[in-house]
Amino acid sequence: MNKTKIFILLLLSLALITCSVQEDKTNQHNFGIVIHGGAGSMEKANYTAKQITVYEKKLNEAIETGYSILDKGGSSIEAVEQTIVVLENSPLFNAGKGAVFTSNGLNELDAAIMDGSNLNAGTVAGITTVKNPIKLARAVMENSKHVMMIGDGAEKFAKKQNIEIVEPNYFYTEERWKILQRIKENETNKDESYLNKYSDYKFGTVGCVALDKNGNLAAGTSTGGMTNKKYGRVGDVPIIGAGTYANNYTCALSATGHGEFFIRNVVTHDISALMEYKNLSLEEATKEVVMNKLVKQKGAGGVIGIDKAGNITMTFNTNGMFRGFKTNDGNSTVKIFKD
Amino acid sequence: MNKTKIFILLLLSLALITCSVQEDKTNQHNFGIVIHGGAGSMEKANYTAKQITVYEKKLNEAIETGYSILDKGGSSIEAVEQTIVVLENSPLFNAGKGAVFTSNGLNELDAAIMDGSNLNAGTVAGITTVKNPIKLARAVMENSKHVMMIGDGAEKFAKKQNIEIVEPNYFYTEERWKILQRIKENETNKDESYLNKYSDYKFGTVGCVALDKNGNLAAGTSTGGMTNKKYGRVGDVPIIGAGTYANNYTCALSATGHGEFFIRNVVTHDISALMEYKNLSLEEATKEVVMNKLVKQKGAGGVIGIDKAGNITMTFNTNGMFRGFKTNDGNSTVKIFKD
Fold it and tell me: What's the predicted TM-score (pTM) here?
């Protein structure tokens, strides 16, 4: 072998090493998590410093739960589920333990989860005895051929899946009960929306979106619905493409707000479609839908999102949204009110 | 006034007349109606000539019902509702009277309607005693602040709205009952999908889309779900953006097929988004979603649609789809099998 051949071989080896290093780099995905605990017309003046601290602490706990899973190489689905469990187990938010009461004095819970890597999804609506609806949504996604289950049928499936069942009084919280009584007392037209009557109204859904180290996106949302709701009303949360959507090709999204507007506008799929078909960024697409389309229709609420590159959004057209995020570049925040 | 001036004035008058005639033309909207009675793997060899005639007669009756409303200047919403009532009242299709049986031997019905002029929508799921679910969906849209109602709550609302309630045995048909028994006998894994087991399986949803003389689009869909379904499963029909969608800006769409795939792919909103954001025609957008995206995922089914100009589509990736249309240009057809 002459010197020229050796030189060529050396060059080829160097090229191969460079290629494999570059491949490693593209395999190193950013990762991160974004959460919300509901949007609404909350004013800073109505909260004590202590209350704010309590909310911020719980939001931080939820974020750290999910981030820690992602940091250890866990899946975005696992991070989304476990983060939402923290929020569902807290009485602070309108989901799980803190669910608001229906007109009949019951708690009817809805939840959804979606895996952006394969578009698989699981959703449940109108359930009354499952401690963590997000766990049931994941079981529907992973252990059934179906996407959506409702009411008694969904509860039967929960039992079969050994998902924790609680007595209905588990969901009793004095604060939510008082809110129902206050709304009922003020009810003039029994079918009228009460949204404009209460200046401190909160859409208390919780949600989480995550991007894991493998580049997989996931989204989840869980809610106790609207106080004083009637007739088995279901909002946008368990509607794939409305309150919850994830697609590795674009982004993962979770919404909170006046659900009817989010269903009619197919809000989360519309954001994804604006990214896919019009090449808008996550921030541009979310602003177009939440701050333009929804505002024109007076549809109040917000959306959190994370895209395949790890960019995040927390966009809302209300006065506030319980929210926070943490990404692997060291950025993190927890906020409640407008900046 | 010299001859040149008179000539110019004459030219201007002629231009004005031409403009106003053109304006009149753009105000004269096309109108039309498209229906489906479900897609599936039906083979012509399995149907007698008499059976085919019975199906074609009922499909024609439904089309004429809706077309006649549109021809008299009625709204697309009214045409969609009344057309679907004809199909719901027939035992031939899996909706209303002809609904298939759940695993428990019950009939759980879902329906949705959407008004493309204002994005208002009404949907119901898991109802068991309402004769015409499409009427209840319209009542939810027009007489409540909500979009979606499920189960007992939805039935209570139906009673309040004086919508016709029937005894559960109204939905008993011997043919559907036999199909349930046959599937149950052949059930090996109780949770396994039976879709691939029966070569003559039909997704027997019914649907209708219409464009009226005022240029307003509407879509509606109604179904008895899947034979032997369990756990309160809900398919794509009552999910706005999945089985049903209408938007005056683009088109009106109704789907039939393996609902889970239609939910995960937010099929009808995706078609609308491809038209709005990528300027695809109705036919191009529907083909991209039904014949490309869904086929890649083995998601069986079809979609009917009409756009704001009156163009129509009846696209399916199965062997057949009960379908038909009639437009004001004199075109009409009723078909069952592939061309």
Answer: 0.89
